[in-house]
Amino acid sequence: MNRREALANLSALGIGATLAGLGDAQAAQGDVGQRRSKLRKIATEEAFAIPEIVDALREVVRAGGTNLDLPLLKTIYDAPAGTEPRFLPELLDLEKQRLADMDRNGVEVQVLSLTAPGVQMFDADTASSLAIVANDRLAEIVRRHPTRYAALASFAPQDPVRATKEMERSIKNLKFNGFIVNSHTNNEYLDQQRYWPILETAEALEVPLYIHPRAPSDGMAAPFRDYRLEGAAWGYGIEAGTHAVRLLLSGVLDRFPKLKIVIGHMGEALPFWMWRLDFMAAPGARAAGRTNQLKPSEYFQRNFAITTSGVEDPLALRYCIDKIGADNIMWAIDYPYQPTAPAVSFIESAPISEDHREKIAHKNAERIFRITAGR
Ligand code: 1WB
Ligand code: MN
């Protein structure tokens, strides 16, 4: 056995990364990737757009204002003439480059969701109708490629009653696999009573609600206005993580004990915060809600799953496996915002057991999103 093989074997046992220097680990990664290319991979945070929503978002961008999503959205939906359109061709394509990219990289399934901020920046009527259009379009794509795509449904939280109708239609009629919401809506969060019908409906339909990031809401936006802090580098995670902590601490999970929430980006830092959240906010602790039945970590264990989107760090993955268990972690690429090949070699070569790798690469997604064989 040469040094490379030795490293690869150590890696598979979960002890390679600490022994190997970065260069060695990367060298080993190539071999390991080759060997494991049979690994079935379901990517769980994969974005698409439809032309109607692209046009509507362009109008929102042109109307301007102080909302913190606007600077990033401008680079995608209203880029200055002559500049390269960022991500837009990839977001709109569902049958050409995307499938080719999946084939090239051995990705069997993408779980598709309408890209951030979804319909959440439109007025309630526009948002409710565009959610229906987006879901119908997505259903048609999944019908054409039932073995390659699964689907998360959009809805418009601006009108919770219409939202719940569309949630029911998308699961019962369109056979979708869950829901997507892009964090706050008009600076409000889902723990607020006005949105409880949405949580109640997701729980009753027994499908997960994926809380995807968007830029921080107005009330916490100021320090994120410099250095492009508002986007995927930092603000996205702070916004979505704060949303998740609100659900953990507000008591809504006592009201909806079977609700399943999914958050991306290796849990938006929550696994790292869990000890302190428990110390400060467990029942009886100094920052506890007065009626919460469980510790934050107990709600997290019972009600949450995380995905690896955009965090291809083997140490972070191993920490999350130890902290929350391999059954609650799903692989994701974050296509087209993240490149596919490194996300694939990350999961194929991460120093974790083969049992955990299979769970994270596809088995957990099959269970949590009810993706059946051949679909
Ligand atoms: C980026 C990432 C931009 C995401 C986005 O615009 C979304 C980025 C809506 O990396 O710049 C995303 O979904 O992670
Ligand atoms: Mn994303």
Q: From the structure provided, what is the oligomeric state, counting identical versus distinct chains? A: single chain
Q: Give the percentage of residues in beta strands.
A: 5-15%
The radius of gyration is 20 Å
Biggest β-sheet description: 8 strands, parallel
Bound molecules: 5-methoxybenzene-1,3-dicarboxylic acid, manganese (II) ion
| Unreliable parts | 1-35
How many DSSP H or I helices? 18
Write a brief caption for the model:
The chain is of the alpha/beta class.
Description:
It is a single chain. The chain has 375 residues and is of the alpha/beta class. It is 50% helix and 9% strand. It has 18 helices and eight strands. It has helices at residues 3-13, 16-19, 22-35, 51-63, 70-77, 88-92, 97-105, 124-144, 160-172, 196-205, 235-249, 252-255, 265-268, 270-281, 296-303, 314-324, 340-349, 354-368; strands spanning 42-48, 109-114, 149-153, 178-181, 209-211, 261-263, 304-307, 329-330. Strands 1-2-3-4-5-6-7-8 form an eight-stranded parallel β-sheet. Strand 4 (178-181), helix 10 and strand 5 (209-211) form a beta-alpha-beta unit. Helix 1 crosses helix 3 (22-35). The longest helix is centred in the middle third of the chain and has 21 residues, at 124-144. The protein is globular, with a radius of gyration of 20 Å. The chain binds 5-methoxybenzene-1,3-dicarboxylic acid (1WB) and manganese (II) ion. Residues 45, 47, 212, 309, 334, 337 line the site of manganese (II) ion.
